[in-house]
Design goal:
The structure holds two protein chains of two kinds. Chain A is mainly alpha-helical. Chain A contains twelve helices and four strands. In chain A, the strands form two sheets. Chain A has a two-stranded antiparallel sheet with strand order 1-2. A two-stranded antiparallel sheet of chain A has the order 3-4. The two termini of chain B are 32 Å apart. Classes of the chains: A mainly alpha, B mainly alpha.
Chain lengths: 308, 157
Amino acid sequence: MAGGAVSGGSAASDTYAEARQWLLVPSWLVLGIFVLAPVCVMVIYSFLTKEFRGGVIWDPTLAAYDQFFFDRGLFGDGDPKLQWTYISIFWRSIWQAGLATILSLLIGFPTAYYIATRPSSTRTLWVFLITIPYWVNLLIRTVSMKFLLRDEGPLNDFLMNVGLINDPLHIINTNLAVQLGLFYSYLPFMVLPIYAAVERYNFTLSEAAADLYATKWTILRRILLPAVKPGVIAGCILVFVPSLGAFLAPDLLGGAKNFMIGSLIEEQFKGNAGNWPFGAAASMILLSMVMIILLILSSQRRRAGVDQ
Amino acid sequence: MSARTDVKTYSGFQFTTILCILILYAPLIVVTVYSFNASESITTWRGLSLRWYVDIFVGPESAKFQQAAINSFSIAIIAATLATAIATAAATARALAEWSDEDDEDDEDGKDDEDDGDNNDDKDDEDDEYDEGEEATSTLEGLRRLEVHVPPPLSQL
């Protein structure tokens, strides 16, 4: 279309190509040094032998992975039995993160929808309101959640004063507390992608459906949800993946009983009691799980995008 | 008319939104209120006081807090500056790639071409959409003729 302008383009784009390469060097360096290199270190460490006071001995072995999956008795020479301790910790983490994600979706979707249907003048304010808590440090937010949920905490005081309950609810140090903590930590991550998707949604489709006598619920289920599905999936990924590896919420809110993968890994690298190769192996297993989930979801997302 | 706008609103969504905001802010508000607590312990409320703020700014350990604040600020400023510089460079590279692909068919590395194939498709779609509104078309066309890079609207990214 812009026929006259093309003649000067090729010389200019050669300069661009060169500039482009140099402009990308810092990003590649940062990614290489701070993402790729540490992951490589973890891969290598997971195949090394543990040093007893933390650290590794350069002696390649599969012991860390073996310890994760199999129990070989007290002296390590028994018949290998499947070891459920760590697998159940992983399973609990998936369960906790999944429940936190569902909870975020139940609260986050209506919120995102409501914000996206506000007049554009107030929309920014709403988004701002959702974003501000995220700027507060995660540790402070988790500690304040712990403080709020205590047996003698403000939440129980309030519920007892209102008369809803007679005895304080024991929320702290339960699975529910961890779920609430994870839900609270990552709720904005659910709202924002869905908001972006609903904002793009063409509401004339809803009107057309209503003209054809679709009920509101049908419109929501058959028209709106398929259209904003990529946003919903993105929100679920953004809540589920960090929840899976979280260690602050389970540590502070869950107590000693409600161990999650993040705490398990953290413990292996903390102080002198840790087992670095085992921590690295657990990290690798977590990382591969996340990768598989992301691959499945991104293929779903692509399909949803094509459907649109 | 009211029926048409009604399609957009779902009963209960407003309530959920208010609940969501409440959940997000309740812990922060509670901690803020308790920062004015006169009591030694965080668990018991014993009236309003500014003693903890006094402690931070002029208390015996205030020097430690000041040093921590200075450290946090300097690290944050350095991190933000570096991140802005590196990300701007990368974003510029991306914009240059799109720009030169627009009027340059024979790019040296085939990988970029493949990469940007999708993008170009997207742009074609947009063009089609814009063709329906005359004013938008003419403005975009004019800008393209002037070789001004027209980014796709944010909502389409």
